[in-house]
Amino acid sequence: MSTEADCLFCKIIAGEIPSKQVYSDDAAIAFLDINPFHRGHTLVVPREHVTDVLEGDRQLTTIAPAVDATARLLRDKLQPGGLNIFNSAGAIAGQEIFHLHVHLIPRYESSPGLANLLNRDPDAGADLDAVHAELTS
């Protein structure tokens, strides 16, 4: 489990590690996942270090406006056929970075349905710069 001092997402929020940020507000930031499941896979994280959605005082409600704004940005700019929004709380649930984060995963006709959600598109990470440009233009 990470602490604030060694947390990857805290370092991204502080600007110590570069990211392809697509949204920010006072409570959260959103940036492209560097190992995306599908084109445009984005993470929304609270600025405050919180281990998971079950820790602290209702952090999900705090970042909900950022989740909503980022989901709409992905829909409007990337034109996916759908979008999955999910969170994993705890290692048993598959959480790998212990700073609350919500995954926003645009979905396309080439790989529909829940069965294909976690099957990484091998080309999804190849054009992060292009996706970032689409989302921030």
Automatic annotation (TrEMBL):
Query: Which one GO biological process term can you cite for this protein?
Result: nucleotide metabolic process
Instruction: Extract the InterPro entries matched here.
Output: HINT, Histidine_triad_HIT, HIT-like, HIT-like_sf
- Which GO-annotated molecular functions does the record name? catalytic activity
| Database matches in Pfam families | HIT
Q: Where is this motif: Histidine triad motif?
A: 99-103
Per its UniProt entry, which superkingdom is the organism in? Answer: Bacteria
**Active-site residue numbers:** H101 (tele-amp-histidine intermediate)
Q: Which residues form the HIT domain?
A: 8-114
Q: Which PANTHER family match?
A: ADENOSINE 5'-MONOPHOSPHORAMIDASE HNT1 (PTHR46648:SF1), HIT FAMILY PROTEIN 1 (PTHR46648)
Question: What is the protein's name according to its record?
Answer: Histidine triad (HIT) family protein
